[in-house]
Design goal:
One of its GO terms (molecular function) is transferase activity. This protein is an alpha/beta fold. The protein is 43% helix and 15% strand. α5 runs parallel beside α7, α5 runs parallel beside α8 and α7 packs parallel to α8.
Length: 230
């Protein structure tokens, strides 16, 4: 029987972490749950300790990619389930994301979330991610930025180091496809906090856009080096 480890990066998620972890525990009673507290300044860490098997404190906020890297390396499972901290009650739906990996239908399952209730932003970050992945691999993703993923441990070992910050999902998809692993997108009824159309929201999306651009440029350059040496 394959062992599953659930890794959740969290930064100032005191409002959501308890509900998310409770929902996970209700559906994944015996699985390993790891929370990486990415330098939170609220009581995220203390709340997570009530539900998680392991809470890893980061000394400072280092970004999602760094938190996931630390989390999966500490995990003991054959399959690593990567989930966001703000899923609340919908976190239990992760069982549907896990199934195709357990059944050996894919090596990396990516959740496709329902359409948001209201349109936010201009779609630039998602568009850049979509076109970048398509250009570099030929794969046309429906959810290029989805952070909800189930992945075989051997794939993560092959990748060795995840990309940092908001480029982590794009980098993981590109690297997995280039290495010949099977990627599948699965519709899952997750719901999470939506970024608004205020200054904070546009600032967040701007950082995301830049991080995705840096990751894609790096993946393009790595491809050039591989082609020359191959």
């Amino acid at each position: 029987m394959k062992r599953v480890s659930i890794v959740i990066p969290a930064y100032n998620e005191a409002e959501t972490i308890s509900t998310t972890l409770r929902a996970i525990r209700e559906r994944f009673i015996s699985e390993e749950v790891i929370v990486v507290d990415d330098g939170s300044t609220d009581n995220t860490r203390e709340l997570a300790k009530q539900w998680a098997d392991l809470v890893i404190p980061m000394p400072t906020n280092q970004g999602k990619g760094a938190a996931l890297q630390v989390g999966w390396q500490q995990a003991t499972g054959d399959i690593i389930l990567l989930l966001d901290a703000d899923l609340r009650e919908s976190a239990g739906e992760a069982v549907h994301l896990l199934t195709p990996v357990l059944e050996n239908r894919c090596d990396l399952a990516v959740a496709v979330l329902p359409r948001p209730k209201a349109r936010a932003g201009l779609g630039l970050a998602k568009g850049l991610a979509y076109h970048g992945i398509r250009y570099l691999t030929g794969f046309e993703p429906n959810a290029p930025l989805s952070g909800q993923r189930a992945v075989r441990r051997e794939l993560l070992h092959h990748l060795r180091k995840l990309d940092g910050g908001f480029g982590v999902e794009v980098g993981m998809t590109v690297d997995a496809l280039r290495a010949g692993y099977r990627v599948m997108e699965i519709p899952v009824s997750f719901s999470h906090r939506e970024t608004g159309n205020d200054w904070s929201g546009y600032r967040h999306r701007g950082k995301e856009f830049l991080a995705i651009g840096r990751t894609l440029c790096r993946k393009w350059w790595e491809g050039q080096i591989w082609a020359r040496n191959g």
